[in-house]
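Lab notebook, bench 4. Still working through the backlog of constructs that have no structural model yet. Next entry is a single chain of 191 residues. Request: give me the structure tokens for it.
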Amino acid sequence: MVDAQPAATGFRELRDREVDLLLGRRFEPFSDDEVKMEVLGQDRFVVVVGTGNRFARRKKLSLQELMEESWILYPTDNVIGAFIVEAFCKEGLQPPRKAVTTFSLHIRMHLLATGRFVTIMQESILRYNAKHWALKALPIKLSIPSVPLASFSLSSRTLSPAVDRFLEHTRELMKSNTKTPIERKALRIPS
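Model written out:
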């Protein structure tokens, strides 16, 4: 396994046959005859705080109410940062003052756990980190479209049985994450 940025590198890892399969988000329209994309699911953006944050128990909330909070944002010169700026603009707001700007999920999780920060992240990241880091999504509906979670492979290359099996398990995992909490419990899949 390697950490790669498929969109930023033009799928170099696939083309150079360093990897057989890439998993990632696709923020922009996709068209490449050499690379096959399979959408596995959708990932929406959510506003997140630590459970100790004063807004964590609120049932109703708006972005406007969070403007003076300490935010953790992505750099605005990349795709995720641009999506987040768009969310504020659609609400008639300027992006909030930045307390921290980082790509690092590790730093983001540590800061959120203190209860003093607010961020926007993908729901899939929250799903697998909420319990460990004591995080919670706030009841704010963002005006950002969901982003496809996808697999990418070379169109001209047959996947090995091991990679094909891995992809099959990934598809099942993605399907299970779209089920209700009761359905997940019945399947013994952590929420």
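Notes after review: Residues 6-42+147-187 form a domain with the D-Maltodextrin-Binding Protein; domain 2 fold (CATH 3.40.190.10). The chain has a mean pLDDT of 87. Flag for follow-up if needed.
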